[in-house]
Design goal:
This protein is mainly alpha-helical and 272 residues long. The protein has helices spanning 2-29, 51-58, 62-93, 99-109, 118-127, 134-157, 163-170, 175-186, 188-203, 207-212, 221-226, 236-256, 258-267. The protein is built from 13 helices and no strands. Helix 6 (134-157) packs antiparallel against helix 9.
Length: 272
């Protein structure tokens, strides 16, 4: 009984510790005085207002930033899922010269953070005339997310019995039909993990976007929210309101696919 009480107490403390920053951001977003530090513990005080949200939507370029972020994240996710699913299947099912070296190279790229690769990325994008362009972001985000996605998909494909494909071949299916009609539906948990990782890799990224994009009309949400912070003053109310709204798509996506997460992560790690 004592152990159960201690366990529930620990869970409750960790829950409060995790929720407090979120509640504090909500409190700041509802505050009309742009105050960041306060001694009051009230989340919704007597002076709480939705003015920050109204200002965010109607007096700033927030909707433009939101559209840009959705576009960049959607394209990156589609490219990541398409390339990872096909290339991982080839690495899982076929034996060819250079296969092991390719797998090792993909694993090696994960040792370097994306920010460390900014200089070569910038040089490449400059030569391709993709600076200050969404295409430059697509290229960087997709290439940095692909190594993990390919390894994740390959590990999952390795758990699928080859007998399924052999039976389909005997039934007259082509290899493309086997891949699209049998392998992909069975691999839905791994595809969801790949899509989630690709989406989150681009949705909240700031450093690369700040280097590639200079035109305010191309700003994504992280860059747009950064504009609320000045050298002498910061619009904390707008910043907090924007941060809450930015978290909603990621939260909805996570909740909607949560039933796939455990099976996708565990089954994909059984066999490498």
């Amino acid at each position: 009984m004592t152990k159960k009480i201690l366990a529930w107490t620990s869970i409750l403390l960790f829950t409060v510790f995790s929720l407090y920053p979120i509640l504090y951001v909500i409190s700041v977003s509802l505050r009309g005085d742009n105050a960041f530090q306060t001694q009051s513990l009230e989340i919704i005080g007597p002076n709480s207002t939705l003015k920050n949200f109204s200002t965010l939507f109607f007096e700033t370029d927030f909707l433009l930033w939101l559209r840009n972020s959705l576009l960049v994240s959607a394209v990156t996710t589609l490219v990541g899922v398409a390339l990872a699913s096909t290339s991982a299947y080839a690495l899982s099912r076929y034996r060819f010269r250079g296969r092991n070296m390719m797998l090792f190279s993909l694993l090696t790229t994960q040792m370097f953070p994306a920010t460390m690769l900014m200089l070569p990325f910038f040089v490449i994008l400059s030569k391709l005339h993709l600076i200050d362009s969404f295409w430059g972001l697509f290229l960087i985000y997709s290439s940095t997310a692909l190594p993990f996605c390919i390894w994740q998909m390959k590990a999952y494909y390795d758990t699928i019995p080859r007998e399924l494909e052999e039976a389909a071949l005997l039934d007259g299916c082509s290899k493309w039909m086997i891949f699209t009609k049998i392998i992909l539906p069975v691999s839905s948990p791994a595809l969801v993990i790949t899509a989630l990782f690709s989406f989150m890799n681009s949705w909240s990224e700031y450093v690369i976007a700040a280097v590639v994009l200079q035109d305010p009309q191309l700003y994504t949400l992280p860059l747009g929210l950064r504009s609320f912070q000045a050298s002498l003053a910061t619009q904390w109310g707008l910043y907090a309101a924007g941060a809450l709204i930015v978290s909603i798509p990621a939260l909805v996506l996570f909740i909607s696919i949560s039933r796939y997460l455990v099976s996708g992560l565990t089954m994909g790690s059984v066999k490498g």
